[in-house]
Amino acid sequence: MGSNIGYIQKETQRALDAGDINSARYHAYKALNAIEKSKKQFMACGCELAENSIQESLDHLKRATRVSSLTSAKLILNKALMSAQSSLEALEEHEEVHQSQYGSDQLSLNTRESYLEQLKGQIPVGKALEQKIDKALVNYQNSLEEVVNSTPCKEAYRLALTNYERCEEQLLRPELTEAKKYYNLRTKQITKRALDKLRDCATLNQ
Length: 206
Hints:
By secondary structure, this protein is mostly helical.
């Protein structure tokens, strides 16, 4: 599964690097087809967080193939790439917890607690987690600014509004991890600034 996600990330990055919309769509389709073919493996793994994140990546890839401009596609592809990375990280954490059990139900409570304490130190939390997510969102913010500056106002507004509403929907889910909550909150804040810039011209062109 980790190898599959690596392939999905590679094709998504190729779509991001494409110089025209047709090439971007070609590589986006390769990435989303790889996700479709991997669905049974994700279900069998039992890692719900990894499965949810890769489903988000699939949804973003599908959206990226439907927009008409390369700039808009790249904005959505950035989100697809980040979701794939979240899936990989969730998978790795899931695997580490399984490895800690040594294949036995007789693992002592002390050993289990010791391992979990060690694991906590490896997973970013608090400010470290926020800084990691903020750094990852730089590409999204840059792509969004490019959309605002180079895409027809109504299309840019519609695209930003869709991203904003998706963040709102995600933030209503009670099972979200702290990382997902902060990621969606910051994405919502970044997108809100773009919507404010576009609101007047979008209204005028209605």
